[in-house]
Amino acid sequence: MARPKRPPPEGFQNIEPTLLQFSEKLKEIENTKSKTISKKEALWPIYQVHHQRSRYIYELYYKRKMISKELLTWLLKNKYADQNLIAKWRKKGYEKLCCLRCIQSDENNQKNTCICRVPKEQLDKELRCVTCGCKGCASGD
């Protein structure tokens, strides 16, 4: 990730090591090439790390109150986290959403929300989202 032009606000140095770990994970995933899985499946780990990094920042601000509003804004502006995904997590019913593509009806074959949004007790077997590999992010589970 390119360094932003404006220096980070107070408190960034406390979370920077964790953010660097997420960046290293992403680099590792990008450098790993597997010919045994499909192109979509190869993207699943990237979606998962992206989710984890955004969730980490969300938890720091909204749940644990360990970072300032100024730092959150700076992190979102500099794309350390997904602003739209965090906005969805704040809404009832989307607290565990894995990615935004899973709630976009035009992204799915059935013109409906993704299979991972269906509560597990309503499914006959365990299915994975073809977009991000999620095993189920319905908030009722």
TrEMBL record:
Subcellular location: Nucleus
Major localization class: nucleus
Xref: InterPro entries: BUD31 (IPR001748), BUD31/G10-rel_CS (IPR018230)
PROSITE patterns hit by this protein: G10_1 (PS00997)
Gene Ontology CC terms: spliceosomal complex
Keywords: Nucleus
Entry keyword Iron-sulfur: no
Domain of life from the UniProt record: Eukaryota
GO biological process annotation, one example: mRNA splicing, via spliceosome
Family per similarity comment: Belongs to the BUD31 (G10) family.
Protein name (Swiss-Prot/TrEMBL): BA75_02019T0
